[in-house]
């Protein structure tokens, strides 16, 4: 396999499947099986998952809710998704640990870098919940931060779109897909890969990002193999 240690970023919305909100059990199990295929090769896997299928802090704030309170609610939503993914992975015989940036010790370990590294070395999948633990920061920022902290080789951003396009392909079917981009090209073209804080942090730490369609069976495995799947952002 091309990578030894990966950070997989999943959106909460991806867990909805065909539903309008919540968690689709079939989609959850499908993701667990895709992750297991990679896990069985010996690749070390860490995961950051969003909470948008349950609650989005920005959305709550736009409706008049205090932004800080709304963001904390969003962080708790990521823990619900993390618990669900943990259960699905363990149902597929993948050992996991859930670590959270906010202490919820009855259900998860607090995030400690050394413990996370040790779990990875012992071939356990580590799921990081609660984002960075701070309001005003997205789970994209948390994904980049955790990837840097655990010395991941790459960030794999699993979405429902098969890469980065000139425009939103769901709105414009004539949009053109990129196979590879530099960080500078993404900025110059004004392409939306991650939020600005996350993207800048990734660029400064020379951490490549691959955006790919997580919903196509086998894609995750092929990306980790080094196949030309999705769009790679590098230097």
Describe this structure in words.
With 235 residues, the protein is α/β, with parallel strands linked by helices. The chain folds into two domains: 9-153, 3-Layer(aba) Sandwich (Carbamate kinase); 162-235, Acetylglutamate kinase-like (Carbamate kinase), CATH 3.40.1160.10. The chain contains eight helices and eleven strands. The strands form two sheets. A nine-stranded mixed beta sheet has the order 4-3-5-2-1-6-10-11-9, sandwiched between helices. It has a two-stranded antiparallel sheet with strand order 7-8. The longest helix is centred in the middle third of the chain and has 25 residues, at 67-91. The chain is globular. The two termini are 21 Å apart.
Main β-sheet, in a few words?
9 strands, mixed
Uncertain parts: none
Estimated share of beta-strand residues: 15-25%
Shape designation: globular
CATH superfamily of the largest domain: Acetylglutamate kinase-like
Number of domains: 2
- Label the structural class: alpha/beta
Cα separation of the termini: 21 Å
CATH class of the largest domain: Alpha Beta
Helix content: 25-40%
Strand order of the largest sheet: 4-3-5-2-1-6-10-11-9
Number of helices: 8
- In CATH terms, what is the architecture of the largest domain? 3-Layer(aba) Sandwich
Write down the CATH topology of the largest domain: Carbamate kinase
Determine Rg (CA atoms, Å): 17 Å
The total beta strand count reads: 11
Element order, helices and strands? Answer: EHEHHEEHEHEEEEHHEHE
How do the helices and strands line up, and which of them pair or pack?
Blueprint lengths: L4 E6 L14 H15 L4 E6 L7 H6 L4 H25 L4 E5 L8 E2 L2 H9 L3 E5 L9 H11 L4 E6 L4 E2 L11 E2 L1 E3 H7 L6 H9 L4 E5 L5 H7 L5 E4 L1
Helix pairs in contact: 1-3, 1-8, 5-7
């Amino acid at each position: 396999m091309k990578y030894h240690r990966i950070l997989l970023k999943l959106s909460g919305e991806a867990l909805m499947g065909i539903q309008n909100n919540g968690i689709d059990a079939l989609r959850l199990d499908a993701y667990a099986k895709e992750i297991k295929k990679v896990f069985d090769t010996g690749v070390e896997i860490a995961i950051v998952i969003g909470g948008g299928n349950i609650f989005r802090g920005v959305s709550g704030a736009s409706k008049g809710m205090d932004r800080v309170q709304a963001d904390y609610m969003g962080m708790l939503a990521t823990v619900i998704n993390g618990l669900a993914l943990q259960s699905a992975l363990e149902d597929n015989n993948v050992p996991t640990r859930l670590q959270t940036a906010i202490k919820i010790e009855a259900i998860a370990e607090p995030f400690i870098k050394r413990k996370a590294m040790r779990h990875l070395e012992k071939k356990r999948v580590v799921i990081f919940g609660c984002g960075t633990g701070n309001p005003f920061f997205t789970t994209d920022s948390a994904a980049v931060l955790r990837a840097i902290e655990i010395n991941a080789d790459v960030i794999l951003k699993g979405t429902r779109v098969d890469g980065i396009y000139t425009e939103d392909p769901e709105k414009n079917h004539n949009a053109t897909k990129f196979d590879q981009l530099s960080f500078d090209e993404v900025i110059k073209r004004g392409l939306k890969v991650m939020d600005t804080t996350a993207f800048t942090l990734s660029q400064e730490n020379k951490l490549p990002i691959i955006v790919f369609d997580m919903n196509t069976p086998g894609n995750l495995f092929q990306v980790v193999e080094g196949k030309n799947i999705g769009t790679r952002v590098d230097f």
